[in-house]
Task: structure prediction
Amino acid sequence: MKTFVSAEKAVCADEQDLSVLRAFVEDELMIRPSLGDQFRVGFFSADHSSQTDSSEIIEIKEMTNVMRILGKAFNSLRKDFLMYKNIIKGEYEENIEKHVSNLWRHINETAQSIEANHKKKLTMIRESFRQQLADAIAVIKTQYEGFYSEKINAFITSEAQNTFSMKLQTMLNKIREKELTIKSLEAQMVEHQNEALRRFQLMLGEEEMDTETIKEENSQYRQQIDKLQIKIIALEDAVKRKDNTIEKLDTDMVNVKKKLDKDQTTIVMLTAAYEKLTNDFTKEREAAINMNIKHKKEMEIQMALSEKQDKQAAYSHMWVTSSMEPWDG
Result:
């Protein structure tokens, strides 16, 4: 300001010219637009507060207005873009949540269906094999408790075998004794017949023997012979009955042994079936455990991917928000 006043004094010779110059400068300043409230324009171009020519002021003002309008339009577009971005982001997050929810529900329903089917199948298999085993055990129990119990108790234990052997030996001894008795009786019968024949011949040779005495002796001999024949027949019948009894006992023993072997085979088959059932159940249980572990791993991977996508979306939102912050000036 001091420089401006000294320049006016240097140009103007007196106070009147100085007042005229000041009035001219003030009029010029009122007509010419200023770049700011505090700006002043000197008489010379070097004294101006800026080097902008007066002819450029209007263009600068128009350009300033255009820039102001563009700035407002840009701010409006930026607000619209942020709003559109938030709407798209909300719709995208909603779609992701909906898709994740549907996927999670579908996986849970599938896993529950598989688990239910597996449990149902295991239950059916267990009931089937349990029923088969119970039926087989009941059949064996009935057979043992019914017809075979006495036979098995008679022939399985060593005591029973010894008793049976002793009885058989006793019966054989009795049969041998009866055979010896039969042979002895037959020999006696032959001897009596020979004796009777000899006596008969002697009596025929003796004329003085009475006929009645001979008849009585013959009658006695015949009675003795009949008694001996009856004893022989009874003994033969007893021997036959003993032989039939022994054959029947042998047949029963063979049948019991066969049925015991058959029952033993059935028990072995049932044991093998039970072991197979146990192995199948173990394998199915391991398969179910592996399937559950696999589903858990898949769910963990899916959740990890979902969390990673959420984090990436959050980082993208933070970056876009930071990049779209409104300018200050």
User: Anything to note?
Assistant: Residues 2-99 form one domain. The longest helix spans residues 211-323. Helices lie at 2-11, 15-31, 57-145, 148-155, 158-205, 211-323.
